[in-house]
Design goal:
Immunoglobulin-like, four-stranded antiparallel sheet, 1 helix
Length: about 290
């Protein structure tokens, strides 16, 4: 024997199992369950989003009869911190959670170029891969000195390079470049880091690889042009050889009689007055003896 008992719904209970399904840079997907199973009418939820960095609040309303509710919170900022509260519209007990959005990614291709008394940091613009980043926000540069175990803030810039001076001999430095932090050092981007050995010792392997790739980018086209020039030279020499061969063949064919089996030379009429008395030279034959005067 069994009996079915249906409990009286209590609208003062909080939503159950509130959690984040997906967290991105500018939005978050949250999910929860109704205070009791199988609601028999539409339930109005209030979703309050408190920005802990900007100190602002936003409230959204969600009306549904589903036991499981999924909602997307939009217009968030990368690297932000948010406190989310979900409760029924009648101000019942609440369910809360924290959301940290994904920060902006690190700049690409950070490298070091060494000058006489300073170094230059270069990197690619973050706007190339981050549509939410504006160049006017700029970047900030940090330096860590491993010898004294201290991190120093070098400054910020809206350019894609930064000059660093007054480095000390014998110190090893690590440089970091990231999207500039907002609102009291919060909402920062992910840093791109690079190790720089003591002054005069050169860059680390990553920087050396960057320089090697730059050299290769110059050497490879030059080698290709040399190969093209060498191939063109061979073609020119081959054409000249064929031209000379054709000229010699034409000359030989015009001065040889296959019927007589002997060479044919000019009679000398077109050589001028000085050669009028010169005897005409005819072809030689094996049947005619050679007489030397």
């Amino acid at each position: 024997d069994y009996v079915v008992v249906k409990m009286i719904p209590d609208n003062r209970l909080p939503p159950r199992h509130l959690h984040a399904v997906l967290t991105s840079k500018t939005f978050a997907v949250i999910k929860w369950e109704s205070p009791y199973d199988s609601p028999d009418q539409d339930m109005l939820y209030a979703v309050a989003v408190k920005d802990l960095v900007r100190k602002t609040d936003k409230i959204y309303k969600v009306k549904t009869r589903n036991s499981t509710v999924e909602y997307t919170i939009k217009k968030l900022e990368p690297g932000g911190k948010y406190h989310v509260i979900v409760q029924l519209g009648n101000m019942s007990k609440e369910s809360t959670m924290m959301i940290n959005t994904v920060p902006l990614s690190a700049p690409d291709a950070l490298k070091i170029i060494t000058e006489n008394d300073h170094i230059l940091l270069f990197w690619k613009s973050l706007a190339l891969k981050e549509s939410n980043f504006n160049e006017s926000r700029g970047y900030e540069v940090l330096m860590f000195d491993s010898l004294v175990n201290r991190t120093a803030y070098l400054g910020n810039t809206t350019e894609n390079f930064f000059k660093v001076s007054n480095l000390k001999i014998g110190h090893n430095y690590s440089f970091a470049v990231r999207a500039r932090c907002l609102y009291g050092g919060q909402m920062c981007g992910e840093p791109a880091t690079l190790l720089y050995d003591e002054l005069g010792a050169g860059e680390d392997s990553e920087s050396s690889m960057g320089r090697s790739s730059d050299v290769a980018a110059i050497v490879v086209p030059i080698l290709f042009l040399l190969l093209v020039a060498l191939g063109a030279g061979f073609v020119v020499l081959y054409m000249r050889h064929r031209r000379l061969q054709s000229s010699f063949t034409a000359f030989a064919n015009s001065h040889y009689s296959s019927r007589l089996g002997s060479a044919i030379f000019s009679s000398g009429d077109d050589l001028g007055d000085e050669d009028d008395e010169a005897p005409m030279i005819t072809g030689f034959s094996d049947d005619v003896p050679m007489v030397i005067a």
